[in-house]
Design a protein that fits this description.
6-stranded antiparallel beta sheet; 135 residues; alpha+beta; two-stranded antiparallel ribbon; 16% helix; globular; endopeptidase fold (from Nostoc punctiforme); single chain
């Protein structure tokens, strides 16, 4: 778990030197054996959430099924609504704790209760990976 903590934020980043929220969740899930691509193929700009407010959830829907908040378990994705748009995600790592990264912050694990009022939806990955390398 330590390898996911303390990574610097970088919009569109996909490595331990800098990563954004979907990159972090994608990397964590990959290492847990699930497939959620870190990009939908379109450029990630500073204004992506304004240009296409449904983009994040549209991408997640392709690889996950929606679950209720009271059924969350490790490996589930939580989408958060910030500034009235679904624009941030994290992944449950145990009970009431989730892994995420925010702009100008380092990746960390926080209590979900602290963020509960921002929850937009919850998702469970459905595609298992086979014959993969841990990254």
């Amino acid at each position: 778990m330590d390898k996911y903590i303390g990574i610097d934020f970088e919009l569109g980043g996909r490595s331990e030197s800098g990563i954004d929220c979907i990159g972090l969740v994608s990397k964590y899930l990959y290492n847990q054996g699930y497939h959620l691509p870190a990009n939908d193929g379109d450029p990630i700009t500073e204004e992506w959430h304004r240009e296409n407010p449904g983009r994040l959830k549209d991408h997640i829907k392709k690889y996950c099924r929606q679950v209720s908040f009271d059924r969350l378990m490790p490996g589930d994705i939580v989408v958060f609504e910030l500034y009235k748009k679904p624009r941030h995600i994290g992944v449950i790592v145990k009970n009431d704790k989730f892994l995420h990264i925010r702009v100008n912050k380092k990746s960390s694990i926080e209590r979900l209760a602290r963020w509960e009022r921002f929850i937009d939806s919850c998702w469970r990955p459905i595609y298992k990976l086979y014959n993969r390398e841990v990254i």
